[in-house]
Amino acid sequence: MNKNLRTPCIAGNWKMNKTPAEAAVLVDELKAAITAPECNVVICVPFTDLPVALEKCAGTPIKVGAQNCHFETSGAFTGEISPVMLKEMGVEYVVLGHSERRTYFGETDVTVNKRTLAALKAGLKPIVCVGEYLEQREQGITAELVAMQTKIALQGVTEQDLKNVIIAYEPVWAIGTGKTATAEQANEVCAVIRATVAQLYGKAAADGMTIQYGGSMNAKNAAELLAQPDVDGGLIGGASLKAADFSVIVDAAK
Ligand code: PGA
Fold this sequence. Notes:
Layout: E1 9-13, H1 20-33, E2 40-44, H2 50-57, E3 62-66, H3 83-89, E4 93-96, H4 99-104, H5 109-122, E5 125-130, H6 134-138, H7 142-153, H8 159-162, E6 166-169, H9 183-201, H10 203-207, E7 211-214, H11 222-226, E8 233-236, H12 243-252
Parallel strand pairs: 1-2, 1-8, 2-3, 3-4, 4-5, 5-6, 6-7, 7-8
Helix pairs in contact: 1-2, 1-12, 7-9
Bound molecules: 2-phosphoglycolic acid (PGA).
């Protein structure tokens, strides 16, 4: 595996945090802390923070993403936001299938696949999340489960479009719990995802794909996780809300 074939990506997932006024403050701090990153840097903010984030990040190395989108372009889907709406605003990335969406909002592998296809069609870059619950890890089915989630999420995605997809391995037991997967555990599952992509699209496509780890990644453990051969970045929740911590993680992705 050649890590040089892919660009690392550090993405912050703000989740349901920060009002627009608070977002303005944090984005200013991030802009001051992250001036010349050697990786792709994205902040995935609540829908209501997108205007301020887009305005303030224009012309900077920080890219802006949303945290979900619907699979239809428009219609009777009260409360939903379509990928076309995000694209028109200037949004570049979108997190899809986060375990919090799967657990609390009934997201399934099939709807994650529909959203992935719709996001790509609209010209967005999806960050597709996969990962196991603690019980599934203890049952010894992590590899099979994550391979299945990856396969279903990518159904119908062309090899060309795959270049715009990032997959984030997020073990559910490590999210927001302070329990990070060990660097070896993270790498092992990221390698399973890469092997699954290789099966579907061939080795070259798999070697070029950015695969992130997420789950309690922070300023202290980022360097070790990011040094793993199959870990090409991170999806960061809690630590993305502090500019000082997030910028240390960005620096660790050199
Ligand atoms: P965490 O969240 O870094 O707070 O564990 C990661 C995520 O849910 O994307």
